[in-house]
Amino acid sequence: MSIQEVARRTGFSEPTLRYYERVGLIPRVPRDPSSRHRRYPMELVERLEALACLRASGLGIDDMRAYLLGVEHGDAERLVALFGEQVVRLDQEMAALQRRRRYVLSKVGLWQARVSDDPAAEAAATRETVQAAEELWGEF
After folding, report:
1. What is the pLDDT of residues 47-66, one digit of tens each?
2. Can you tell me the distance from the alpha carbon of 57 to that of 66, in angstroms, rounded to the nearest whole number?
3. What's residue 139's pLDDT?
4. In sequence order, which residues have a C-beta less than 8 Å from that of residue 75 and are 6 or more positions away?
5. C-alpha to C-alpha distance for 88 and 132, rounded to whole angstroms
6. DSSP 10-50
7. Can you provide one Gene Ontology molecular function annotated for this UniProt record (predicted)?
8. pTM over 0.85
9. Which of 24, 30, 56, 63 is the most buried (most CB within 10 A)?
10. SS3 of 2, please?
């Protein structure tokens, strides 16, 4: 399979595919003898599809490498730890997104109260915005 086909199939850009080869995340890709273009065998494409899922779940290159080593060595405990740590990171990201969302929603309420010329709603929305902002400041 050509690099263009693999890029379409996995969602990785061609430079990313070359980079993964260069840093050893995937083995050296065989070349067509006449054109010297990379020709990805199906087992390598399947490995790249697995890596695409890992990347989509937020894992970085070091974690992808740890995953491949864990699979290669049959180290289920290592894989449980790897994915458990990722769940914790995702939970933290989701909590941060919820705080940001709460702040933005409070601003919607504040500005809607001003559009409606409703002083009581504006006062309540101001308090909500201050609380949401304080939660956001805790992120930094």
Report:
1. 999 999 999 999 999 999 99
2. 15
3. 66
4. 69
5. 23
6. H---HHHHHHHHHTTSSPPPPB-TTT--B---HHHHHHHHH
7. DNA-binding transcription factor activity
8. no
9. 63
10. coil
